[in-house]
Amino acid sequence: MLSRKDLFKDTLRKAAHAWKRIIELRLSEEEAHMLRSYVDQPAFTDLHWGMFIPAIKGQGTEEQHEKWLPMAYKMQIIGCYAQTELGHGSNVQGLETTATFDPQTDEFVIHSPTLTSSKWWPGGLGKVSTHAVVYARLITGAQDHGVHGFIVQLRSLDDHSPLPGITVGDIGMKFGSGAYNSMDNGLLRFDHVRIPRNQMLMRVSQVTREGKFVQSDVPRQLVYGTMVYVRQTIVSDASCALARAVCIATRYSAVRRQFGSQNGGPETQVIDYKTQQSRLFPLLASAYAFRFVGEWLKWLYADVTQRLQANDFSTLPEAHACTAGLKSMTTSVTADAIEECRKLCGGHGYLSNSGLPELFAVYIPTCTYEGDNVVLLLQVARFLMKTVSQLGSGKKPVGTTAYMGRAEHLMQCRCEVERAEDWLKPSVILEAFEARAFRMSIACAKNLSKFSNPEDGFSELSPDLLEAAIAHCQLIVVSKYIEKLQQDIPGKGVKRQLEILCNVYALHLLHKHLGDFVTTSCITPKQGALANQQLRLLYSQVRPNAITLVDAFNYTDHYLGSVLGCYNGNVYQRLYEEAWKDPLNDTVVPDGYLEYVWPILKQHIRTARL
Amino acid sequence: MLSRKDLFKDTLRKAAHAWKRIIELRLSEEEAHMLRSYVDQPAFTDLHWGMFIPAIKGQGTEEQHEKWLPMAYKMQIIGCYAQTELGHGSNVQGLETTATFDPQTDEFVIHSPTLTSSKWWPGGLGKVSTHAVVYARLITGAQDHGVHGFIVQLRSLDDHSPLPGITVGDIGMKFGSGAYNSMDNGLLRFDHVRIPRNQMLMRVSQVTREGKFVQSDVPRQLVYGTMVYVRQTIVSDASCALARAVCIATRYSAVRRQFGSQNGGPETQVIDYKTQQSRLFPLLASAYAFRFVGEWLKWLYADVTQRLQANDFSTLPEAHACTAGLKSMTTSVTADAIEECRKLCGGHGYLSNSGLPELFAVYIPTCTYEGDNVVLLLQVARFLMKTVSQLGSGKKPVGTTAYMGRAEHLMQCRCEVERAEDWLKPSVILEAFEARAFRMSIACAKNLSKFSNPEDGFSELSPDLLEAAIAHCQLIVVSKYIEKLQQDIPGKGVKRQLEILCNVYALHLLHKHLGDFVTTSCITPKQGALANQQLRLLYSQVRPNAITLVDAFNYTDHYLGSVLGCYNGNVYQRLYEEAWKDPLNDTVVPDGYLEYVWPILKQHIRTARL
């Protein structure tokens, strides 16, 4: 309920307080990260620690590390990551800001040649950052060497005023009332700003004193390693956000009763309606599924890192495609699921204190940043087409595409389900998902081959390619969930519940994408109907443990921030108490009554001064 | 960017100003309604004119009309519609507020016996209304006669303070930063508040001086007539809201360029990507489709009204089911579509000045009010099951269910599509949608018959029943669009464009619900693939006229309220100018810098006073 200015000031206060505690408690970097994440509000510190420092670490030389990192670690400088521009987001290679080398002074001249080259969106840029890693086209002589990173000071360390040649400000209000409005996403223009040559991040490429552009032998693939890392954390975060929304909707569905009173008894709990279950329980299952695939991605990142250190790049393209796809799929599903959970809370879900509107508003940018979700899926599709094209060549597909090595089997296999309970077998589910994903990829490849220009074909068929990529990503999540269940899982009966959820996850996807499965002849319409029948039985099995399954996420009421989702279920009392806290209730007669309501009621409106 | 209090005061100001103009210009009721709707912000006047007055008109006696309507028309009193309670929304019969007749004083005692009986949500109640139509359980003697409406004064006409026994206030912040926060959705509790007997709305039922409950011979079905009217306006509004979002996304997609630059030329317009087209053009087609079905609903309402006047209730159940279904389907699709349009605008869609976040926030309650969308679809499903069960009885299905009369044909027909262009024939599309809807209903009926208790069956199969209801509603929209195209349509080439959109609308639904069509054997997988192929060709045909098709909605830039959707396409300049208007940009150094940022930078955080 704060105005933009007050909200922003409050965010600065929280960030300062968090930093004070981090220092006082001598927290490790990881502990500090957790403390900040529990402040649970976007702030400039996210970019300083999450983007500015990693960019210098990843792209800077040893020398640059020594100069900049100690200051950054102590926050003597505060940095942001100035990549996207007004005119360019996804297409990084199209950025327009220029960094022209001036051999006379041994400097780069950073400049914004057009309106659309204005830096736009970087968090922390608008009002706080003293420095930025700025991405700009490197120009030496008359030659354009593409986009590189440069460390640029933006504001005076004395009085925080922008340095000469720099225009900087906030880009304005965003979705929601809180959400990212606590962040100073900024705009930035350069008017021939000069920086020393040694502020270009020079780990991979260098410009010499003479203005010669040189590339070192550091493998460029290292960049992919970082991407795998960042996207893996996004998948974990998706699971957390989804779990939070599902926890609220599930608890409230157990408290809320509507219709179905018999003989004056209580009405039916909303969670007992099959319509509610069929929308809610697949989301609950997805929260667990994303958690497990997130855990597996952590392993994948460790594996990739180890291989990189041994100069083994063989699994990198597959790992990159896999994390791109999972980032896209899990965040898209989570964004929609948060809104679906809000709807599942009925009218009261529309109240801010349900926690769901702001959870939605703060979550949805995840679908755009670190790779637009559609662009990422197209990358996955491209990788799948490449994998398919190499199938005959003896090059064996690896990792999450290994199933494509069993091409003949997957093209011929027929689902053997005869009774609904046959759908409970993990091997049956896995084969259906593998066959569907594979056949969709093959169908795309076949249609692509009809085009004389493959790029035209890729563009024309891109909607189908997206669907094939999604089928592949869903298969990954299903298969990793099944693998998880093959391990020991502590706690009596826990494994059984997780098995039920795994089946819910797979079968709800099968029902949702029934057209895919049936038209590729992976299953028959009859088998589809049996799957749907089994799904309904599974919902009944989830029901008794639904509350426990969300309690297991272990969110405190404070962190959950939802009146509807509170642990003790005392929803109505809390709704009533919260209402009175609205500023509109400060006075019985509202501000504006005398000027604007009284003249209407008393028929004085013609003479009222409005 | 206003605080809640300032936003609310501003809304009062606009409402007063609108009322002043309405009086000065002597506007008719319809013109006044239009003026208010163009203020384009939820306000207490919506409820006064849209619910309070209609409730008195519809449920009051002549005598009550004479007493209350003149005051209400002059706004000497301002009213709201106090139906929903903290504990009850959809289940109106479960309301807990009581109105107990006291024969001693000839009064009703209005009382809130429980916390959950608190009135909750009524717009205009929180801070403004002087009166309310309150729905409460009528109790005479010891008998409960169910829920009835009562006119209750809430606030003093002298100083606006709540009358004795009345607790009233605002329920707090809602989704978004503007949206419904301009409305004083309220809470209300009664502590034995007494009103004269003649303030019960007595058109349909009466309580005599002796406390006897009497029902007049006014047909109860009249209520349905009003519901048909209200829901018809909601469908029209859905089309408007959807058109607004689509207009923004389409225009911006033509301005935005990303990737695909060849030889240094401009990059590709985003609207030229098939992935963008496959998401955007079906929404454009839906906006037109909903407009035409909305126009048809206007006719339906006129027809129903005429029949009611002649005491012909025969078409009422079908008309009621049809409008319930269309309200549900069009509002659900529109809510999702607004968010999809936001995503189609990429990162910049997340900015408030794109217009899309607030359009979403202000639209989504439509899915809940005037009947929760899931509850409504279940009503449709119930009607469909009843219609199916009567098929053998000789009772012919009427109106939008008339197709069910051709049961034998619809169960046997096979789609004759052999080439992609066969899918352009309206008769082919219509038959496929009819057969699919009918077979899904029949399948549900068959599965229902396996349950010994039909209510258990209905409850267990409700997810399938929802899908059958949706298939039926989609058929209605498709068929009304096709009917529209059989009429004369002025303007050279306009009809051709509308035909293309009609095919896009139908074929994108067919692709989305491919599982339905194939598993019911309405079409073969091959025919599904041909439909998808035809759909891609249609997108290419929509493309050249896409901008014209959204310009045709004829929204002014002012009404559209979107930087991204402005008519002249000067998007980047406007984004840049708008940014500077944010309050955070009032000062170069932000408020809070000295207290919270400077101490961090200067390593004084340990001693800072936070």
From TrEMBL, chains A, B:
Its cofactor is FAD. GO terms for cellular component: peroxisome. Residues 80-181 form the Acyl-CoA oxidase/dehydrogenase middle domain. GO terms for molecular function: acyl-CoA oxidase activity; FAD binding; fatty acid binding. Residues 426-602 form the Acyl-CoA oxidase C-terminal domain. Residues 2-78 form the Acyl-coenzyme A oxidase N-terminal domain. Belongs to the acyl-CoA oxidase family. This is Acyl-coenzyme A oxidase. It comes from Gossypium gossypioides (Mexican cotton).
